[in-house]
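Lay summary. Proteins are chains of building blocks that fold into shapes, and those shapes determine what they do. In this project we predict the shape from the chain. Here is one chain we studied, written as its sequence of building blocks.
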Amino acid sequence: MFIRALKDCAEFIAGDKTILRELFHPDKDGLNVYYSLAHATVKPRQASIPHKLKSTEVYHILQGEGIMHIDEEEQKVNAGDVIYIPPNGVQFIENTGETDLAFLCIVEPAWRPEDEDVL
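And here is the predicted shape, written in a compact code that computers can read:
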């Protein structure tokens, strides 16, 4: 059994400037999965930096509101929304609210630094 509490995950600033806590990664935690899972936060009235991954990514919005940008598209997002981001899609998310925008990031195959290009 593998259980990790969010509060036990070290917080750091990711390359796209989101506040990130890595919940698990198969290369680091010895799990037999092909994806990684992280918790991200964007502070009010801020945005992540445009970037793209070679991997597929899914965001699950936990709290807050914002606008998701993927390539030339943009759409308002709220708590409970799930967003599919295709490989090599130029993406960023902006927090349009007055509270933190928090979301889970699922990357498959698991995130690797060489697979991300911050623009």
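What the prediction tells us: The radius of gyration is 14 Å.
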